[in-house]
Amino acid sequence: WLKLSSVSQRSSRSAQNPPVRASDPGAMFTRFVEPGRLALITYGPCAGKMCTIVDIVDQKRVVVDGPESVTGVRRHMMPVKRLSLT
Are 52 and 64 in contact (CB under 8 A)? Predict the structure, then answer.
């Protein structure tokens, strides 16, 4: 009987304070995309190169620049999901 009651207490405690997951709509947003932010390109012909976010086009796309003379990344538009923000 003692084990049963301790298990029910544990389950009721976890139901009161469920863990916060990144997929929850109430979770805090941590990838702040802003002009001037340094990023690493993770996919495509420029993969592995550093770039700077120059402008935000919409919720999923940004304009990035190397500059080309320093990093080899020309100014172009790319999706945010292909970037790793630093």
Answer: yes
15-26 pLDDT per residue, tens: 565 565 656 666
Q: What pLDDT score was predicted for residue 81?
A: 94
DSSP track, the chain: -HHHHHHHHHHHHHHHSPPP-TTSTTSPP-----TT-EEEE-SSTTTT-EEEEEEE-SSSEEEEE--HHHHSPPSEEEEGGGEEE-
Of 51, 21, 34, the residue nearest 82 (C-alpha): 51
CA distance 28 to 48: 28
**Following DSSP, what letter does each residue of 64-85 receive, concatenated?**
EE--HHHHSPPSEEEEGGGEEE
